[in-house]
Amino acid sequence: MMKKLFLTFSAVVAAISLNAQSGKVAILSVNDMHAQINQMPRFAFIADSLRGVYPDLLILSAGDNRTGDPINDQYPEPSYPMMALMNYVGFHGSAIGNHEFDGGPKSLAYQIANSNFRYICANMETPDSMHIWTTPYNFYKVGDVRVGVLGLVQRGVSGIPDCHPARVVGMKFNPEIDKVKEYAWMRNDCDLFILLTHRGYEEDVDFTKDVAPYGVDAIIGGHSHTLVENPTSHNGILVTQAMWKLKYCTLTVFDVVDGKVAGYKCQTIAIDKKNPNIDPKAKAMVDQFNDNPAMKRVLTNVTAPFTEKEQLGCLMSDALKEGLDADIAFQNRGGVRFATKEVGPFTVRDMYNLDPFGNEAVIINLTGEQVKQLIAGCIAEDGYGAPCCAGIKYEVSYDRIVKSGEQKNVKINKITMEDGKKFDPKKTYKVATSTFVISTSLPSDSDQGTNTFTPCSDHLMKYLETHPNLDYTGVARVKENINLIQ
């Protein structure tokens, strides 16, 4: 492969190559790639170029490799394109991210079985019948240095990763610190001890206080999509994260002397879309995957740009309300996967980018009071804010704990029908939403709903096809008053 790099990256390689010697461990890490296959040829070029400096370069992912590009997510074998590209690049290990569960156990088992690297997760337990063959830890030999990697996945307020609960039925997720204690023996069996986590940057920084007694040298993390441009140590432990969608990667070079880390250098490298240097074989693979006419089909025209996430959430809610002939519809904000859309064609690929999860549409009869409870529950569970809606407008206030992102003390201050008519707490409304919202936010005393067994994306596709022009300028149905608590 070519070894000539784009100028800014050339400077990085030139600087570090002067220090390449035995006793150094080079790790190239990414996180939350979210199936950005179009970025993989650039990343492959960077990885191959760094191997020219560090032949034993370790390449690690901190999870969420899938979900984000329908070319990958709607492939006949879901996530095969990303898996094939990761195999080609030469990844050595990956954490389990919450979105690794989006396809359910069979999809995850397929993904792991066909990867040429290990998926590492200590705090997840699955029955043998699922054939999900992860490993709690893995050791790597880099020259004379032995590197130990322990994997951890986040647990949300319900004790499972942030995913549809139905995707993890039968699985168990243990407290992260319990597993660090259980595998503390690794410290005596390696020279460099790393936690490969999918928990969030602030959570990892806080976690350093808990894991410092067990000799952890570094935490390579993901989940919060944080760009840590200048990674530093906290309580003696280096913590890194490189944003998301393969916009950046992190090169960390550890200097290990007599079984201990004597120092390190971290560099955040931009994977610039303007960089002309790409790996040609990876590019050919991506071109073949992208050659999918069905994804290029135009569904409608955007005549005025979408400038806010809520506008797109309102679009998704409108599609459910119209498709299921409901009085009210809800779309959890975390399920709206991009925030802006410029004027121009809206394709099938755009639609699946916006709604990639395959959640099914549900009809449920709720009183007005239960509608309020559903909104409050969704805010608390979703973690991304108040749900977008159709058929009503509402104003809500709540506390958000900055470090954890937890949202508490939700209060619905005002609610009206979208046309301005009175919202009746005692009246029963026909509500349309997704199986995700129902499974996480439904009031315990309410009707449990009727699953249509139709993906929400099918209703969105029909709505787009039957509305030849989209203009959501100024559409805003939710007002949030957020009290940030440090």
Q: Please, could you describe this protein's structure?
A:
By secondary structure, this protein is of the alpha/beta class. The chain has two domains: 7-290, Metallo-dependent phosphatases (Purple Acid Phosphatase, chain A, domain 2, 4-Layer Sandwich), CATH 3.60.21.10; 295-485, 5'-nucleotidase,  domain 2, CATH 3.90.780. 28% of the residues lie in helices and 29% in strands. It has 14 helices and 25 strands. It has helices spanning 7-17, 40-51, 70-73, 80-89, 104-113, 176-182, 201-211, 280-290, 293-296, 309-323, 348-354, 368-382, 435-441, 456-466; strands spanning 24-30, 58-61, 93-95, 118-120, 124-125, 137-142, 145-153, 172-173, 192-198, 218-220, 232-234, 237-240, 248-257, 260-270, 298-302, 328-331, 344-347, 360-367, 388-390, 392-401, 407-417, 428-434, 450-455, 469-470, 478-485. The protein has a six-stranded mixed sheet with strand order 4-3-2-1-13-14, with no helix packed on it. The protein has a six-stranded mixed sheet with strand order 6-7-9-10-12-11. The chain is globular and about 75 Å long. The chain starts with 6 loop residues before the first helix and ends with a strand. Residues 1-7 and 14-22 have low confidence and may be disordered.
